[in-house]
Each structure stands twice: as C-alpha cells, then as structure tokens.
Amino acid sequence: xxxxxxxxxxxxxxxxxxxxxxxxxxxxxxxxxxxxxxxxxxxxxxxxxxxxxxxxxxxxxxxxxxxxxxxxxxxxxxxxxxxxxxxxxxxxxxxxxxxxxxxxxxxxxxxxxxxxxxxxxxxxxxxxxxxxxxxxxxxxxxxxxxxxxxxxxxxxxxxxxxxxxxxxxxxxxxxxxxxxxx
Length: 182
Prior knowledge:
Blueprint: E1 8-9, E2 13-17, H1 23-31, H2 33-36, H3 47-62, E3 69-75, E4 80-91, E5 96-103, H4 111-125, E6 131-137, H5 141-150, E7 153-164, E8 167-176
Parallel strand pairs: 5-6
Antiparallel strand pairs: 1-2, 2-3, 3-4, 4-5, 6-8, 7-8
C-alpha cells in the first residue's frame, strides 16, 4: 500500500482522503459486530456497496460547496488505516454539520478521540462552521466519554431513537462549537 496522503496531522493520528483501494477494508470494519452495534446504519456492506459509498462520498466532497467531508483515519505510528470519520449534511447557511465516525481498528487507545478533535478543528477553522452535532447510542459510555474529551457537550436525549442490540435505545445528542475547543 502506498504511503497515505495526509490532510490533517495530529500527534498520534492523521487524516487523509477516503481511498477506493480501502473500500473493502471500510466494509469489513462496518460489518464487524463490535463496530456495527455502535452505528445507526443497519445495512450490510459488500465490496460493491463499499466502493459505491466511497465514490458517493468523494463526489459530495468535491461539490461546490462540499456537502460532506470524509477522511480515513491513520495511526501515525505505522500509517495503518484504522477507521473513517466525516462531516455530513454540511450547511453553509447555518454553519453546521453532523459528525460520524467508525473506528475499525485499535479502539480504546485514544485514536478516535484525537481524530474527532482534529475534525472539529478542521470544521471550525477550515470550513468556518460554528456547530457540529452527533448522535451516540446511550449505552456507548466509552464513546460518549471520548466525544466529551474531544470537545462535545451533551445537549439532549432522543428517547428510543434507535434500535441497537435488538432493543430500542436512547440516542444522546451532542454538539460542539468553536468555544468548546478553547
């Protein structure tokens, strides 16, 4: 695998563009039970659907203005791809977007927290956004703590807003603004 093109570089992680040659890897991550149970997406990825997703996301990122910005997360210790993260539903009228992350490898090491922080900084400084929101499953306390460490604050609960692990579960709504990163 070629060395990744890096757009945003942090201490332990770096963010680069989505890569079509990693589509099968992205799909494998999304299909992994320990990743899937934390996502709001209930579909099953195949190599074809993963490639289609990459193609669609790349198109959204080159629109003028872009309606999405998606990245591959790399562990800087060895340049291994470990997940994806992105902003979607970008609204320049409202200076807002939603954030989504799927960490497929090396969870529990702080890599996802740093990736979220880097995307927030990029959203506020590069895109000029003012508010980024996300929804996290209420049972995912580790994820909720990681989002808070990255700068998000809890703003509400969507009661019974998702199905996970075969049961209805609340969705914790969180957002971040530039002042939260100060």
